[in-house]
Amino acid sequence: MIEYCIEKNIENYISILRHKKNPKFFSAELEKLLEEAKEILSSCELCERKCKIDRNKTKGFCRAPNKIMISSEFLHYGEESFLVPSHTIFFMGCNFHCVYCQNWAISNWIEEGIEISPRELAIIIRNRFREGAKNVNFVGGEPTPYLPFILEILKNLRELKINIPIVWNSNFYMSRKAMEILNEVVDLFLPDFKYGNNSCARSLSKVEKYFEVVTRNLKLAKGDLCIRHLILPNHIGCCSHKIIKWIARNLKERCIVNIMDQYYPTFESYNYEEINRRITTEEYDKVVELANRLNICILK
Prior knowledge:
The longest helix is centred in the N-terminal third of the chain and has 16 residues, at 2-17. The chain has an 8-stranded mixed β-sheet with strand order 3-1-2-4-5-6-7-8, sandwiched between helices. It has one domain: Aldolase class I (TIM Barrel), CATH 3.20.20.70. Helix 5 links the parallel strand 4 (135-139) and strand 5. It is α/β, with parallel strands linked by helices. Helix 4 crosses helix 5. The chain has 10 helices and 8 strands. It has helices at 2-17, 30-42, 104-107, 118-130, 147-159, 176-182, 198-205, 210-220, 236-250, 281-293; strands spanning 69-76, 86-91, 114-115, 135-139, 166-170, 188-191, 224-230, 255-260.
């Protein structure tokens, strides 16, 4: 059952990434979506923090400006096997404050970032596409605060006739309004599913209503789904097992799951004894064993 499910899902994703059908944004009403996104930006509720500030004039929690700021872009060979080579674009800033963030210099604006226009970035994406990129992978930090500008990038890509699939690599804490727009243009969602409860999310990422928001968005997602779960030390029962059980009840027929073991202490995690170490083999095996028992399609 598991092997069949994995084979079926990956085959579907690969067919998208090899351009056997046009990506969603080619047929989307981009002008209308852009207008909606700009309206949301003017009293910002692109994510569930809903700062409600005019991002054209000031910055919210994420500190993202009203222009594109990236850290880097390159052909990434370290993503899931069916994605590589993936043209990965790292946007500056984040709407979370994860104490163990592995991209903390990007998320917390330790880096200055690089300003770039939607047209310039679209041309870079075109060039990476010609170099062999299977997709363009919007990540960060977090890409959600840049949604209006990403739609402008897509408009330029359509003008350039670059039919590259769109991957949305996100913490999945976007608002319902943002999710509705994303459903019109994203081919493959690559969400993090970090916590099985709100208490751990509040403690380690400084965010409220985490579980309700992320599970809502996972259910709303209309693109293909590859869920990432990074196992945290000492968070097997409270987070990993609850996440796996929720996926089994709600999404296992339409997603694959990447159970990730590469956590390491960094940034502020040294101040949190419970996560100030790598995970053990036993912890990893417990999560995988439960996923197998519940017939979850896990990426191997």
